[in-house]
Specification:
This protein has 15 helices and 14 strands. Helix content is about 45%, strand content about 15%. It has three domains: about 10-145, 2-Layer Sandwich (Alpha-D-Glucose-1,6-Bisphosphate, Chain A, domain 4); about 160-340, P-loop containing nucleotide triphosphate hydrolases (Rossmann fold); about 345-420, Helicase, Ruva Protein, domain 3 (Orthogonal Bundle), CATH 1.10.8. The longest helix is centred in the last third of the chain and has 22 residues, at about 375-400. The strands form three sheets. Strands 2-3-7-6-5-4 form a six-stranded antiparallel β-sheet, covered by helices on one side. A six-stranded mixed β-sheet has the order 9-11-12-13-10-14, sandwiched between helices. It has a two-stranded antiparallel ribbon with strand order 1-8. With about 425 residues, it is an alpha/beta fold. Bound molecules: adenosine-5'-diphosphate and magnesium ion. Adenosine-5'-diphosphate (ADP) binds near residues 172 and 377.
Length: about 425
């Protein structure tokens, strides 16, 4: 029996080559090929599988997937739809031959909030139309990533905040010295670039920018480094590209250095942004041999990108660390300036309490501030929340109307926290 083009199966090796060639051509037109992972093409347990991660999965993307499936395959039924799992099964050419339906090509999309995936699978080989469909789905998934720097950044593990929500400087109590330094060294240059450039033109033999390109935020966990970066980006109305170094190192293991390079490029394409590299302590080295290799590669990309940033005058990089002493000296030297976030002093602790326990009197807050010496703003907030939750439980049990917790509850929560977190020796 001779088969027509519609049912003829393509040998696995030829199919694989075809897909890879189509994808290579697609990547040629891509600004950040490192944001676009290669598909997995395999023959397993008698089935052909083409699988690839998706950068995201929203209704719009799903709708265009469905459109593609309908153009390439006749008679498709929805096998599952919802709760992060969408599956489509081809019914084949003959609707009345329903036996072995599950041997027909199947297309699945899955993922709830992370780890989105697409998989095209079929018992035996694929037809030309099915191969085309796989390639089209892949291109559709990554075309947004290809053109839109924000989508590319997200695909590489960065978050992008384009507004700071409710956050203003008033949210951070105290820290007047830190706020002043940030105003002088970051906000003024970003909002008045002409003044800085004019001065540099008057003073330099060869023009180069005198504006800061990279700044280090240094201080214990919970002292407001991340929050301040968000407030500051909102103030100068540029997007904040948030890059948790620790998590891109572990999540994108093996690919993290390419991703970091891609993040710098995509941030540049935003035409002005604050690139916030959080927890760069992750680059302080590790005993694990493999991790060390990955760390080394990420570090060298970072050094190179921080050097090359001259041309990228619109990107300001901020690195945050709570272990500056453990960082590579070459890395520290790339930062123009370091801003130290101390733990709050007694007056500042009282001011932080005024944000989270506004109903207490000044004396009550001052008394409490005395007990919580050495704690960060985050811990103070946690203690206040603990007091509120305990109080809420008590009101519920007693069937009482809502009221704010009395001061004694805060003192008790503070003591519990200190007791629970005391370093035992
Ligand atoms: N000075 C402060 N005033 C008010 N809240 C603070 C202050 N410092 C820290 N916090 C609280 O602690 C939380 C954690 O701070 P964060 O910016 O994540 O610290 P870091 O990045 O230094 O670890 C903030 O969201 C805020 O709620
Ligand atoms: Mg932080």
């Amino acid at each position: 029996m001779t088969q027509n083009a519609e049912t003829q199966l393509i040998p696995f090796d030829r199919m694989k080559e075809q897909v890879e060639r189509a994808i290579a051509a697609f990547l040629e037109q891509t600004r950040s090929p490192e944001a676009v992972p290669a598909p997995r093409i395999a023959f397993e347990k008698g089935s052909t599988i083409i699988a690839f991660p998706l950068p995201f999965l929203n209704e719009a993307l799903l709708a265009s997937f469905i459109g593609l499936i309908k153009t390439h395959l006749a008679n498709v039924r929805i096998h599952a739809f919802g709760d992060g799992y969408y599956a489509f099964q081809s019914l084949g050419g003959n609707l009345f031959r329903t036996e072995n339906i599950l041997d027909n090509v199947k297309i699945e999309f899955s993922g709830l909030t992370t780890s989105f995936k697409a998989e095209i699978s079929k018992k035996g080989g694929l037809t030309q139309e099915e191969v085309n469909l796989a390639v089209e789905l892949y291109k559709e998934a990554y075309s947004a990533v290809k053109d839109d720097p924000i989508a590319r950044l997200r695909a590489m593990g960065a978050s992008v905040y384009t507004d700071n929500g409710e956050l203003t400087w008033a949210y951070i109590a105290g820290y007047d010295e830190v706020k002043k330094k940030i105003r002088e060294s970051i906000i003024l240059p970003l909002t008045n670039p002409e003044m800085y450039n004019s001065i540099a033109r008057l003073t330099r033999k060869t023009f180069e920018t005198n504006r800061p390109k990279a700044i280090l935020f240094e201080g214990s966990p919970g002292v407001g480094k991340t929050t301040v970066a968000r407030i500051l980006a909102g103030e100068v109305s540029v997007p904040l590209v948030y890059v948790p170094i620790e998590s891109i190192m572990s999540k994108w293991y093996g690919q993290s250095s390419q991703n970091l390079a891609g993040i710098f490029d995509a941030a540049e394409d935003l035409g002005g942004s604050i690139l916030f590299l959080d927890e760069i302590d992750a680059l302080a080295g590790s005993r694990d041999q493999n991790m060390f290799e990955a760390t080394r590669r990420v570090l060298s990309v970072l050094l190179r990108k921080l050097d090359g940033i001259d041309s990228v005058v619109s990107t300001v990089t901020i690195g945050a660390t709570n272990r500056k002493g453990d960082l590579d000296h070459a890395l520290i030297s790339r930062f123009d300036q370091s801003i130290y976030f101390p733990l709050p002093n007694e007056r500042e602790r009282a001011a932080i309490l005024a944000n989270y326990a506004a109903h207490l009197s000044d004396e009550e807050r001052a008394g409490l501030a005395g007990i919580i010496d050495g704690l960060s703003g985050r811990t103070i907030k946690d203690i206040c929340e603990m007091a509120e939750r305990r109080w809420a439980r008590r009101l519920i049990v007693k069937g009482m109307e809502p009221s704010p917790p009395p001061p004694e509850h805060y003192r008790q929560s503070a003591r519990t926290w200190i007791e629970d977190n005391r370093v035992r020796d």
